[in-house]
Structures are given as structure tokens and as C-alpha cells.
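User: C-alpha cells for both sequences below?

Assistant:
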Amino acid sequence: MVPEPYLVADLEQDILLAKAGLETGYAALDRLLSIPQGAITILAGRPGHGKTTLQLNLLARMLKKYPEMAFAFFSYEESRRALALKLIMLEAGETLDQDHNFKEERQTRPAIEEAISLYESWTSSGRLLLSDQRLSAEDLSVTIGHLSGRGPLGAVFVDYIQKVPLQGASSGQRYQDIQRVSGLLLDTAVRLDLPVILGAQLGRDKDSKDKVRLDNLRESGDIEQDANLVLGLLNKTRQKEEDDGVRDSSRSVELDIRVLKNRAGQAETTAGLMLDRPILRILDKATDHAVEAFR
């Protein structure tokens, strides 16, 4: 098909219809960026540093900030049960052991009951979809399209891209398959004008103390080239634990969110957040002065 001329009238119409990027709900981040529409955002981190936790906290904040929108979270690592319990726990601000009697916890702990009620309102209304099906990239793209057709879809989270399989995996290197997965999801984001937020695992770099770098994604098929926004998560406490082999007993630890790439703004900037480790709640150092501030 021959492309039609893109007239000034077309440009004006597209500008009028363009949707603003999503706010994250964290003032420290929102001063630096927004989550772009019709594009891929990558949240990258080392294993165990909190990339899934960050995605779940962003999901919870967006659900509350955009009550007219639905959000979907596709996990290739954890069960729906584990994800739901984590969301309830970070919202309640209290620890919740999945091995304990769930009904008893609801009856004896008001904060847990309140968080469960909020979670129920999100899911029963269709605003929150949690999936632990290991969909292929092709099926994931189709599923996202179906969800978008149901009503306003705010964003889709995928945790994480290196785990997403292909129907026709190549016989070559895995990074080639990851490139194809990234390309499919980029096409989906652009076609649906939808933010697709991908968790990504940073590569191991034993020779460098600074492991949160854009080139540490490049062994994963140059996926950063498909992204409009790349955020790198640095958990200094966790990094020190790995380097020293000694567990740090601190409840709250600092998280640095580095803007590694930003097509719509400035890169090489950093936002400081705090992680309350027992309850998996991430706080904004600038505005959340206490654990209760997130509720």
C-alpha cells in the first residue's frame, strides 16, 4: 500500500488527539519524565534488586491516580497469588505471610482487610488484570489488543522481557529472539497508542562497580533501541550485600532510579526513592515522610 501524504491538517488532528504521558505517582520521577504513550518503557535492574517490586508499586499508584483506566500485569516469573498478596501487603503497609490463614488475617487486621477490599474493587470492576500465563510474544500482542478493545487501558506491564517466549524461536542466539519479542511489543504499543512497560534484567558485569548502565542491556538484543524511555534501578544496599556477602538488617533502603534513556527529555538524571523491604512498599523521599503516607 502506497502511503498517503501526511498533510498539515492530519498533523493538527493528531496533535489534538495525542494523549499525555502517564505520571508515575512519584514526585521525584514525575519531575523528570512521564511514561510515554504508544511506546516502550524499560525498567531494568539486577536480579533481587527490586524491579518487580517497582513495577507493582507503579501499578498500584497508577490504579489510584487514573481511576477511569484499567491496567494489566503479565508476569513470567511469579504466580497471580504471589502478585496479589504483594499488592495487598504494600497497600496495607503490613507484612502478610501467604502460608497463614488468609480469612483469619482479614478478620483480625483492619489494614489488611482495607487493602483486600481495595484490591477486590480493582479486580471485580475489571480495572486490574493479573496474568501468570506464559503467553508467547505473539499471543501476548493479541491479548493486549483484546484488552484495549474492552475500554480505556492505561498501561500494560510485562515482567520481564527476557522470559517472554516466541512461537517460532530461532535456532540462533537467544538475543535474536529477544529482539523479535521487543519488536512485536513495540509494534503493539504503537498500533494501540498504549504504554507498554517492560521489566528487564541487566547483564552481569563483574569488571565494573557500576552495573546500572545502558550497555548492560545490549546483550539482551539491543532492546534499548526499541524503547523511548529506559530506567535503571540501583539498590545500593543489595549491591553491597552481594559484594560483601553480608546481609544488611536495615528495614528501609535507598533506591536510585536512573534515567538511562529518554527520547522526550533529559537522560542521565536520577530520582531517589526508598524501599520499605518487609512490606515491599516504595516511597518518594521528597513527599512520603512516613510509611503511612502511601495509604
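Moving on to the next sequence.
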Amino acid sequence: MVMMGCNSGGVKGEGTGGDGRGLNEVVSSARQVFLETFLSFSDLLKGAFGITADTTKEAVGERLGEIGEAVNVAKSKLESLKIVDNYNLIKDKADGVITKMIGILEKLVNGSNKIKEATKDASGKIANADNAGDAVQADTESVKGLVEGISMIYEAIRDAKIDLGGNAVKVIADSKAISKLFNATGNASADGLKAANVALNASSGADILAAIEASRRGVGKSAGQIKDATNAYDIAVATKDDTDAHNDISTKGPVIAAGIALRAMAKSGKLATKAADAPQEGINAVLSRAVSKTVNEMMLNIRKTVDK
């Protein structure tokens, strides 16, 4: 779309012949490229991505991978503009804009591919809780890939001057009991499920993305206990533990919600369940909501970036 008005101010030589005809042709070609490119995958970005009881972790990555493939087509078409015969006629006005957009699209592609790779062969479901199960640490490499991929997408959206609007440190009531879902089934509790819902209810998709992006500097750390977790990455890879959550996260709803989303999407990750106190229906609802908010916020902002 950025090319639609590249000749709006008039260009010397524009007319019915010579360089003017060449300029008109390249502008017309540019318009057509943009139209075909962005219409070609608009349907892919329409509406919400619904998380069902059967949606697998891998399916989420594949969906974002499909979007990455479509964005890559857009990037290739933009790159093709720079090699047409008459491109030099608009280069002064358009080169900077096109080059910047190619860079933004490349980050979207790389981020989407990173997420797809992070969930490859993760056949388990997002809503993977059963009646009575221990928490299972998420695969650290899978979580690392998710954080890095989401951060690339976040950066691309920010480069496009889209207002992301998230607050990674939104304060909620003390929810240190979230640790009860990072435990053995015997210690899972209603307080833990309540804490998860408090965090999710307070956090928008934008807040969750901001919290994931804020954790990117910590992805090299070894996994530890929930009592030592200080960001979303730490929560996702936390090992089983029977102590309260760290003060750095206990009142930060988006950080808790982001940690749950990453754990739900990553290979192996599970929360603890206990039939009477933290039943599978409640835990599965938490897992599905966390992922749905995260993925749909990403898709919304990718669409805004492409349409900008």
C-alpha cells in the first residue's frame, strides 16, 4: 500500500511518452504488486484463531508458520520491484520505504518460522490437563524458540509504528498461590487455579505479548523452581516446587499469564491438576485462554502491519 501515492506530487518527465510513460508503468506495476500481495493472504489473517479441546501445540506453530509463508510471498514481491527495468525512475522516492518494509516483513517471516520450529513434533494438546496430573516442565529449547520468535514479531510490529499498547507489569492482587499449579497433583489447589484466572482476567493479549518480549533477555538461564521465577520464560520452564511464587511475579498478571501461555504452547509443558480442587476443565480453560489471547493478538498486529 505504501506505493500507491508515490507519484502523487508529480514527477518531472511524467506524461504520455519517454520517461513519463516508463514512470507510469512502474508505478502501475507497483500498485498491482501491492494489491495482489496483500489480498492474496488477507483471508489467512481474518478472524480469530479458535483454540478447541483438540488443538495441538504443533497446530498453533503451523498456523503461524502459514502466515509466515504468506508474508514471505509479500516480501519476495516487494523485492521483485527493485529489479524491474524502470525502477530507477522511482528509486529516489520509493527505495527507502520499500527497503524498510522488506526488513519488517523479513522479521515477521523469521519470527513465525521460529515459532513453528519451536513447536515442531509437539503432538500434545494445548488443553492437555487430565483429572489428576503433576506439573511438567516445558522443554527449555522450545520455550526459548517461542520467546525469540514472538519477540521478532513484536519488534517488526513496533518498527511499523503500530501501537502495541501492552503493559507487562500490570498489577493484580497477590497471586503467589499460582505456584500450586507448578507442583505434584497432591499439592494442586483451588487457590492456584484462582490465581491463574485472576492473572488472565486482568491481562489483555497485548499485555501478554509485552511480558513475553520482556523475558527475551533471560532465555539463556537454566530452569529453576517457581519460587525463583522472575519472568515469563522462567515460569514456563519452572520445575516442580512446593513454595510460593517469587515476589517479582506474584502481583504481575501479564507475567503470570505469559508464562502459562508459553508453557501451554511449548513441548511437554503441563500444569498440575487435582480433581476436587484444580480440575482438568478449569486448568484446560486457563491454558486455552492464555494461548488464544496470545496468538490472536499476534495475528491482529501482523494484519495491522501488513495493511499499514
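User: Anything stand out in the second?

Assistant: Residues 18-118 form one domain.
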